[in-house]
């Protein structure tokens, strides 16, 4: 464990100290800062439709790559089958063949045949004869069931459902393709959710060439959204449940939608499960799911079955959405509560719009004044109360501003059955806004109702629901991203639906429920997150939180709060409330059922989370999970964790994912809520000394204590030599402080050499030393030709930070250039005539690096290092790479190159000695070749990666 405790991540003093240290390192880091600023500025640039489509397509490709299955995944599925499944299920795919859809059906059959799980059958309902004799076999997996000429397809299908041996059935459009793991995934989830009686999954669109696009990442079951739009699509249903619900739909142009509603009516919310993974691929040619007329009919029948009085109308997205207007016999009183102080310029338009544009008949207004001292406001109060004595009351709150306490005070004084929390900087713009909210609020299963809020000047969306975890705690989706008439992702900006929370700027709740859950938290959440907390408490008691776009108001957006200057005390209060809210709801924030874990929490506009996509399924913890954050060096990442992790994954020992790989203009580390959503067992961060990752590590210490935090280090970062190009950008004192902070926030340190371990022993207790090693499947197969030229080929390979190491080589090259051919890769000593040597640019793609290095075909390699602490702490990796290629080596006599006594020639950095050694070897090529063979044998015996996998596994796990 860490040697010293780090103050809490949100401790203001500590953050100020860390920010000072981070700023101290920026003086020599102007380029990185400029790139980062440019990147941040780019987020404000609106892309045109084609550019946005290209960006979305790229992100979806990255997501697909991260989620791609391999042979091991199939093995894991099989292992889970034996461990989890209590019953071997039989699934049936059902298709109603329409004329002309034969080729689409063939695509579906081909897709089903590739399922990893063979417990399936396929039934094709058609009016035409079977094209294949094998489809008519009673015992075959594919059966062609011919519908009699006058029979209705749904009646014929329901007769079949009474006879089929299948446990689960699904109805699909011809042309639908299925992920190979679909049935295994269904069985896995049913094993841990025996209460499920119907299941749907995410899906995308597939082109004729197999290209996938337009993913539909859906929320978990959301009744109000389903009533508004057929977001579920096709689903698998437990056969007996479907029969009990009336069988296959008798509304042919809205069968999926009708089936979903009837199944819900039979089994309820909790029996309809959602798998947040793309398991279905629908051809673009298939088109819309439900015709408008059929969907409205299905919805009306659903309301009748539920005993709900309501009317069905066309929604705001023509042909795609619907609106249910719920009818109630009474109009109970609503108490509208507005906390306020001064700011008559905001309050007067708000109140006047209420008085002039609220057609709902029974409401009262409670103004909670927090010590207004503006004479104009006080005079306006007197006039308002005189004109509207029966409707408006003024309450005094003579204490420091406490939004929760002010609303609680008014709630106690309220005479209404419902409370409407309203900000003083809102304005009504249509008179039936409160009717629209009360139509939902009076439903017995609804606890809270929220409205749509628009920015006054632009009429762009400000509030269209609160998503848990968004921007770190809870955020407004679509904020400032859509015009008031744009439908947004899955049409969700213009449809009634359930969210986990809505904003308190306009929030309606039954007073009895408000009292039952204790109102707003006026102790821990005096100003912020009290509205979200209120909604979550209501949901915890089983009530729905509904957001409706049919109640729309203007909202300036915390104008009263923003008017004052932001001082440190206010910032500290806010941060304390963030802490309290996060600790209270941490588990809930990580997986909002109204959202989808494949959508980003870092962006308020719905976007695919490609940077943090994980290959594992969070519900099934069959292998340890390791997430790594590499440094900017691809080669360091490869040797220090990517190659070992790949090998451990291939051996079935763990899952792994590399996240937030640095690139120009990009700085990102997961927010704590994102890390919780990923749910790794271990987080390994390589040298998190940059601004972004250093702060992130501190946050994880506070917010993600269940995750093992491992610090990885392969360089003495706080003792960079003057010739290193990062010396100015990474001042020693700043790096030492950041290293201290990072290690104190970590559970464990992994290093590559003993000097690195020794340098950190006073900072952290748990240190694991694992040397660099080579993946012999890559390096062992390489061939490098020796003696390909008349003269000896002598060379060096490396990156750009070795100017000091190569300085003394210049004289050696000058002295021997007419006797040997010099070859350099990546960097060359200054001042040499490039025409006199062979030079190759550095290969940044590490996958191509080993082959490129081998292509140099050296007869002799050199490995010079300056004598200073930074190099003394380095590993012998250079010798390993050279040795794997069978190259003999002359190197500096320094600690890294003495490790395990390799068969190389070690010399002091004396040019005469090096020149003499090169000439001796040029004279004896046979002996030189034997030296190379001996070094290769030494590397193979001592530094094959497989030798160290057990060490890596123990180091990566608790």
Describe this structure in words.
By secondary structure, this protein is an alpha/beta fold. The protein contains 33 helices and 35 strands. Strands 12, 13, 14, 15, 16, 17, 18, 21, 22 and 23 form a ten-stranded mixed sheet that branches. β17 and β18 form a beta hairpin. α10 (255-267) packs parallel to α11. The longest helix is centred in the middle third of the chain and has 22 residues, at 568-589. It is globular. The model is unreliable at 1-46 and 559-565 (pLDDT under 50).
Number of strands: 35
Helix % is 25-40%
Radius of gyration: 34 Å
Poorly predicted runs are: 1-46, 559-565
Q: What shape does the CA trace take? A: globular
Mean pLDDT: 89
Instruction: Tell me the span between the first and last alpha carbons.
Output: 12 Å
| Count of discrete alpha- or pi-helical segments spanning 4 or more residues | 33
Described by strand count, sense and barrel closure, the largest sheet is: 10 strands, mixed
Please state the structural category: alpha/beta
Oligomer: single chain
Beta-strand proportion:
15-25%
Quick gist of this model?
The chain is of the alpha/beta class. Helices cover 37% and strands 19% of the residues. The chain has 33 helices and 35 strands.
Short descriptors:
10-stranded mixed beta sheet; 9-stranded mixed beta sheet; alpha/beta; single chain; 958 residues; 33 helices; globular; disordered N terminus
């Amino acid at each position: 464990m860490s040697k010293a405790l780090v103050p809490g991540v949100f401790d203001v003093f500590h953050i100020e100290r860390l920010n000072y240290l981070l700023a101290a390192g920026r003086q020599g880091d102007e380029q990185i800062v400029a790139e980062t600023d440019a990147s941040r500025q780019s987020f404000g640039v609106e892309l045109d439709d084609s550019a946005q489509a290209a960006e979305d397509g790229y992100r979806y490709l990255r997501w697909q790559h991260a989620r791609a299955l391999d042979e091991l995944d199939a093995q894991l599925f099989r292992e889970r089958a034996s461990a989890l499944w209590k019953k071997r299920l039989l699934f049936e795919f059902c298709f109603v063949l329409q004329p002309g859809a034969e080729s689409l059906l063939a695509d579906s059959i081909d897709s089903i045949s590739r399922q990893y799980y063979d417990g399936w059958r396929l039934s094709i309902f058609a009016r035409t004869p079977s094209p294949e004799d094998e489809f008519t076999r009673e015992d075959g997996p594919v059966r062609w069931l011919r519908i009699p000429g006058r029979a209705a397809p749904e009646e014929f299908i329901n007769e079949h459902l009474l006879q089929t041996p299948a446990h689960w059935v699904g109805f699909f459009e011809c042309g639908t393709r299925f992920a190979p793991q679909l049935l295994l995934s269904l069985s896995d989830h049913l094993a841990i959710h025996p209460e499920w009686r119907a299941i749907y999954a995410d899906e995308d669109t597939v082109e004729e060439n197999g290209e996938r696009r337009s993913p539909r990442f859906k929320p978990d079951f959301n009744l109000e959204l389903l009533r508004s739009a057929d977001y579920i699509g096709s689903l698998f249903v437990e056969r007996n449940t479907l029969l009990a619900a009336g069988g296959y739909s008798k509304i042919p142009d809205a069968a999926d939608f009708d089936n979903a509603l009837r199944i819900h009516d039979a089994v309820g919310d909790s029996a309809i499960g959602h798998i947040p993974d793309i398991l279905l691929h629908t051809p673009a040619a298939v088109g819309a799911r439900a015709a408008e007329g059929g969907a409205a009919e299905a919805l009306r029948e659903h309301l009748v079955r539920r005993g709900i009085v309501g009317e069905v109308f066309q929604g705001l997205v023509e042909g795609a959405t619907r609106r249910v207007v719920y009818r109630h016999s009474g109009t109970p009183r609503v108490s509208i509560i507005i906390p306020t102080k001064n700011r008559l310029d905001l309050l007067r338009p708000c109140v006047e719009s209420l008085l002039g544009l609220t057609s709902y008949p029974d409401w009262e207004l409670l103004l909670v004044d927090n010590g207004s001292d503006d004479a104009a406001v006080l005079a306006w109060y007197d006039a308002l109360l005189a004109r509207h004595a029966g409707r408006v009351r003024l309450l005094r709150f003579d204490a420091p501003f406490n939004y929760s306490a002010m609303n609680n005070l008014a709630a106690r004084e309220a005479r209404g059955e419902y409370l409407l929390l309203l900000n003083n900087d809102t304005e009504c713009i249509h008179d039936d806004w409160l009717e629209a909210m009360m139509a939902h609020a009076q439903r017995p299963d609804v606890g809270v109702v929220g409205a749509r809020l628009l920015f006054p000047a632009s009429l762009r969306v400000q509030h269209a629901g609160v998503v848990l975890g968004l921007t770190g705690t809870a955020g407004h989706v679509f904020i400032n991203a859509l015009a008031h008439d744009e439908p947004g992702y899955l049409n969700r900006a213009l449809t009634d639906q359930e969210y986990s929370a809505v904003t308190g700027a306009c929030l309606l709740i039954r007073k009895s429920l408000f009292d039952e859950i204790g109102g707003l938290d006026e102790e821990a959440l005096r100003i912020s997150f009290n509205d979200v907390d209120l909604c979550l408490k209501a949901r915890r008691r089983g009530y729905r939180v509904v957001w409706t776009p049919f109640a729309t108001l203007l909202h300036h957006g915390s104008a009263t709060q923003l008017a004052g200057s932001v001082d440190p005390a206010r910032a500290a209060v806010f941060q304390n409330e963030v802490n309290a809210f996060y600790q209270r709801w941490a588990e809930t924030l990580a997986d909002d059922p109204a959202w989808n874990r494949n959508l980003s929490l870092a962006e308020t506009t719905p976007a695919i989370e490609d940077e943090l996509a994980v290959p594992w399924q969070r519900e099934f913890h069959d292998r340890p999970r390791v997430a790594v954050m590499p440094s900017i060096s691809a080669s360091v990442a490869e040797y220090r964790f990517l190659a070992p992790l790949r090998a451990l994954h291939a051996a079935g020992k763990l899952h792994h994912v590399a996240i937030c790989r640095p690139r120009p203009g990009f700085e990102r580390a997961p927010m704590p809520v994102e890390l919780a959503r990923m749910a790794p067992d271990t987080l390994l961060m390589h040298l998190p000394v940059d601004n972004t990752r250093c702060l992130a590590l501190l946050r994880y210490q506070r917010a993600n204590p269940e995750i093992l935090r491992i610090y990885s280090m392969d360089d003495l970062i706080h003792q960079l030599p003057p010739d290193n190009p990062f010396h100015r950008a990474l001042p020693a004192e700043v790096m030492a402080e950041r290293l201290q902070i990072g290690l104190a926030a970590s559970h464990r340190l992994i290093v590559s050499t003993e000097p690195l371990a020794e340098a950190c022993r006073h900072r952290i207790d748990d240190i694991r030393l694992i040397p660099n090693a080579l993946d012999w499947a890559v390096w062992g197969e390489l061939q490098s030709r020796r003696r390909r030229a008349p003269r000896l080929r002598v060379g060096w390979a490396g990156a750009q930070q070795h100017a000091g190491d190569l300085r003394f080589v210049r004289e050696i090259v000058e002295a021997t250039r007419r006797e040997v051919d010099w070859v350099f890769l990546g960097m060359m000593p200054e001042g040499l005539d490039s025409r006199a040597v062979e030079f190759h640019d550095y290969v940044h793609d590490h996958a191509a690096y080993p082959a490129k290095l081998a292509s140099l075909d050296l007869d002799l390699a050199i490995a010079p290092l300056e004598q200073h602490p930074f190099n003394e702490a380095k590993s012998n990796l250079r010798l390993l790479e050279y040795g794997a290629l069978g190259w003999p080596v002359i190197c500096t006599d320094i600690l890294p190159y003495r490790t395990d006594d390799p068969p190389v020639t070690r010399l002091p950095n004396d040019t005469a000695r090096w020149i003499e050694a090169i000439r001796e070897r040029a004279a004896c090529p046979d002996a030189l070749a034997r030296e190379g063979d001996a070094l290769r044998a030494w590397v193979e015996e001592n530094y094959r990666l497989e030798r160290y996998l057990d060490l890596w596994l123990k180091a990566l796990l608790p």
